[in-house]
Amino acid sequence: xxxxxxxxxxxxxxxxxxxxxxxxxxxxxxxxxxxxxxxxxxxxxxxxxxxxxxxxxxxxxxxxxxxxxxxxxxxxxxxxxxxxxxxx
Amino acid sequence: xxxxxxxxxxxxxxxxxxxxxxxxxxxxxxxxxxxxxxxxxxxxxxxxxxxxxxxxxxxxxxxxxxxxxxxxxxxxxxxxxxxxxxxxxxxxxxxxxxxxxxxxxxxxxxxxxxxxxxxxxxxxxxxxxxxxxxxxxxxxxxxxxxxxxxxxxxxxxxxxxxxxxxxxxxxxxxxxxxxxxxxxxxxxxxxxxxxxxxxxxxxxxxxxxxxxxxxxxxxxxxxxxxxxxxxxxxxxxxxxxxxxxxxxxxxxxxxxxxxxxxxxxxxxxxxxxxxxxxxxxxxxxxxxxxxxxxxxxxxxxxxxxxxxxxxxxxxxxxxxxxxxxxxxxxxxxxxxxxxxxxxxxxxxxxxxxxxxxxxxxxxxxxxxxxxxxxxxxxxxxxxxxxxxxxxxxxxxxxxxxxxxxxxxxxxxxxxxxxxxxxxxxxxxxxxxxxxxxxxxxxxxxxxxxxxxxxxxxxxxxxxxxxxxxxxxxxxxxxxxxxxxxxxxxxxxxxxxxxxxxxxxxxxxxxxxxxxxxxxxxxxxxxxxxxxxxxxxxxxxxxxxxxxxxxxxxxxxxxxxxxxxxxxxxxxxxxxxxxxxxxxxxxxxxxxxxxxxxxxxxxxxx
Lengths: 88, 605
Description:
Shape of chain A: elongated
Structural class of chain B: mainly alpha
Largest interface: A-B, 45 and 53 residues
Mean pLDDT of chain A: 85
Strand order of the largest sheet of chain A: 1-2
Distance between the termini of chain A: 7 Å
Mean pLDDT of chain B: 82
Shape of chain B: globular
Oligomer: heterodimer
Radius of gyration of chain B: 24 Å
């Protein structure tokens, strides 16, 4: 459970830095974020298009790691039977 | 004679596409009704739904009128500000995946109230949890009804209704509401899983196809945004280059529309006439509060969470969430493109305010501009987006109706009022509850003609963020939570959010109502309400206005704080079997500890 929680917090931290950092960039560096790239402003491109793939990557990473953790846990417990119920 | 007149006034393509969606939904609903026999079928579709179907069904239910029509309308009216909505609608699922989806599914209960009761062994808590299913549900059905009214008003804009042109907004709301309510009362949720999975693909097709056609005719996404650069950077290269239509006076200027702190987030500060640096600081605050509401709210939406119970196990629940994020993420790229196109090519909608002729209708109306170049193609594409709109509000309204009816029939009637009711009694009660809730939702829907669809959905998310999200998050991960702590936090945070939101919505409602009486005297009750509409208070206190309109920034921490403090004070009443409960929530299912909470109650169903 604690390993799963650590993994969740780690993934959430990456996500939150990106999500909460973007308004801050808009606030602190408005001219930089407003530069045009292929018609888009930089900040529009980041938020309206590129944000989705970032989240998919985080999610895919989390699911792979999370399922690995579960399987590892099952192996550990199987190795230390019969006193399994209190193992974490 | 009548039919001829009727058909002359309505575009046949638009009518055909819309009817196809409505009839398809109803036929599939009835077909499924013949196959759903037991209460378990009605509530969670028998729990054996594959990952692909379930992900499509969740996405189909989630993509509501707000996503299909509201996001485009709001991007058109507010610009960059409104982009936070689609992004956070999609990304909120990450929070659900990281912290809630797996454990909740392992715990195995039909509804959130089931979870609340199972985690805390307290029937009282079930009642509190039910209250918020209804609160969030009704706040969420209102924008769906606005979507229905707007769509029907558009399809029948040229007919004559008792001597007046166009179908009135409330008539559309009542028509759609009645059809869906009967469909749910007779069909249940088994049908809805199939129908909603299909409706996701209808919506995806309906939003993507017109965008590709429009972009190939009028230039790419980046090109549309470039047209909104009236600053020094904009140079017209060739004389033949397409120049967009002139913007009406009511449209926000280019610089404001592209600005990250635009019309939506600076509204309160502008009304108070604050200086530019302070306005920007308040806008940043507004943005953060909005982000918290949307991200945490997604993780606490009762009608979405119930779907995770239809996964066979926790691993499947995680895989489903991944696919949902891909499916809705791809979808959400398109509505803002519609908004940008709408600003350049159909700016006359800015004059329609936020009523049925306003920007909320852009997705339905925009393809019609193709008529002048390609004739019928414009009508066909407009028909397709109308079909998508029907799929959007029908699927979400049905889903909400099922979860609210489930709360009333399953929790209030089946568990609280008459625990000894027979299966037939329960089924009958389900139908009556569906009718009752449908009626209330229709009534509320007729009131919200002048609210932006997307804005209303955002408010429902804020309430979910301040009530269910803290409850689920803390209950799953903190073993020190007590019944009283959980109840106080959820009630405190949730009710404060409801109150704050109602205050600002009341002001908006009264102001827009009074605005209709610009050229004639107001009725007395409205004049009284106008005098007590808090408008002057908000103008003098922009910060309070922002914090009431977007309460998540303080309401979510408040709920969590209340939970921690009250739980610490009542630490002696932590459930005795908490170790076992935590094990059920977090241990891998392959260990064989899986305990379907509901199994104990199977005999009663």
